[in-house]
Amino acid sequence: MGRRTGDARVQVGAARGVARWCTRDASRVGAAALAGVLLVGGCSSGTPDAAPTTSPAAATSASATPGPTPTAAADPGSVVRDVPTVTVESVQDVATGLDAPWGLAFLPDGNALVTLRDAAGLVVVGADGSVADVTGPGADEIAAATVARGEGGLLGVAVVPGDAATVDVVVYLTSDEDNRVLRATLDGTTLGPTRVLLDGIPRGQNHNGGRLAFGPDGYLYVTTGDVYTTRLAPDPGSLGGKVLCITADGEPAPDNPDPSSPVWTLGHRNVQGIGWAPDGRTFAAEFGQDTWDELNVLRGGADHGWPQVEGIGGAEQGYAEPVAVWATSEASPSGLAVTDEGVYLAGLRGRTLWRVPLRPVDPASLDDPALDAAGVGTPQPLLADEHGRLRAVEVAPDGSLWVLTNNTDGRGDPVAGDDRILRVSVRAD
Q: Where does 10-428 sit in CATH, by number?
């Protein structure tokens, strides 16, 4: 396949004049120095996630070439934006023949649990490439409850922190009534009975959100979409177009902006990626509509502006600003992983693994939204147009990146062996 470089504008902007939003102290785990190396081994447009458009192939190696030159807004206290790029050293198939995989989470034993969106099933994937179906009463209940239609189905998955002797997992699925989060105990490849942690999340043909992740504070973060009903996003009484925060037992996190509500942030179109930097910054990837996809830094209580604002430009209205944006043809960012040196975003329509370099930040600046953009560098495209649509990315126990392709979901161009899990190893230049 030919490579593409992402020739559309990429902006890295500072949030100016944004109100200081409350930040969960428990998630501030200290400032980390920017790592010099990553250990080797270690919806867009009017129709969401539409078929990719063609852009000029200008790079000879997307794996080592920085992304488009950003248009930088004022960076309080810093104008230095160059940080090391990385080079992809190797890409290997871990597993092949997966049916529209969506979510991926690593288990304590080093194997990965993967959801299959349309088949409404789960599989356990080993580092040796073995793939085993998850069975048991919980698997049966999930299959019976899931309605796979459009972008809905069996979506996110996460492992509940705790004693490795008892592994509990949570999944996000679309039912015939709503989107909901279920919890069950996994014993090897047998899933016990499920229980509902959270329901009543609006469902739709598209924009169902669906990513699950436990934060450094031990709470479960749930990303949701506006299901094409934009008025839900800014409405604090709706669970649509939000990032939700609950305990592992399904209660609203006690230090949420409203302790009686799971709503943590609002004003989102369709968030499908969330992760944490070592210094405590919370990053989230969001699908834009016609113009800009976004990478945001989240703080409890913040309104990210949808549907009033898409991309940069909402600070004067009190909305939180993204720290990087892409033209919607270049990203459609789904899953997200954070390492010591970068934020990695899996691009669907853009068919690219985007890396946004992390810059070290002063711990005193972590609570100041106006300084967020100074904490990232110029986005860099990796694997551009080499493996088709990319749905998820996670950091594996060995330090490599595991990347899910998504070419069998009805919008891609599958080749023999799709869909697959790729093991991607990179090194700093």
A: 2.120.10.30
Q: Of 276, 176, 272, 143, whose CA–CA distance to 218 is shortest?
A: 276
Q: Name the phi and psi angles at 195, rounded to 5.
A: -140, 150
What are the tokens at 165? 């002797």
Output 23 or 414, whichever has higher pLDDT: 414
Residue partners of 6: CB distance under 8 A and separation at least 6 = 55, 67, 68, 326, 330, 331, 350, 352, 354, 381, 384
* Sequential DSSP letters for 93-122: EEE---SSEEEEEE-TTS-EEEEETTTTEE
**Cα distance between residue 287 and residue 333, in whole Å:** 6
Q: How many residues does the chain have?
A: 429
Nearest in space to 268 (alpha carbons), one of 319, 194, 220, 315: 319
Q: Which pLDDT score, from 0 to 100, does residue 58 have?
A: 27
141-166 b/e (C-beta count within 10 Å ≥ 16 → b)? bbeebbebebbbbbbbbbbbeeeeee
pTM of the model: 0.84
d(CA 162, CA 165): 9
CA-based torsion, 264, 268, 269, 272: positive or negative: negative
pLDDT on residue 82: 66
Evaluate if residue 352 carries a pLDDT over 80: yes
User: Model confidence at 59, in pLDDT bands (50, 70, 90)?
Assistant: very low
Label each residue of 188-218 as H, E or C: CCEECCCEEEEEEECCCCCCCCCCEEECCCC
115, 124 Cβ separation under 8 angstroms = no
Quick one: which of 281, 236, 286 has its CA closest to 261? 236
The SS3 call for residue 171 is strand
75 near 12, Cβ under 8 Å?
no
Cα–Cα distance for residue pair 230/233, rounded to 1 Å: 6
Average predicted confidence (pLDDT) for the chain: 85
Distance, CA of 427 to CA of 306 (rounded, Å)? 37
Which tens digit of pLDDT belongs to each residue from 408-426? 999 999 999 999 999 999 9
In this predicted structure, the answer to whether residue 263 has a pLDDT above a threshold of 80 is yes
Strands 86-95 and 421-428: antiparallel
Burial grade of 254 (CB within 10 A; 0-12, 13-18, 19 or more): exposed
DSSP H or E segment with residue 271: strand 271-276
Q: Which of 332, 274, 297 is nearest to 6 (CA)?
A: 332
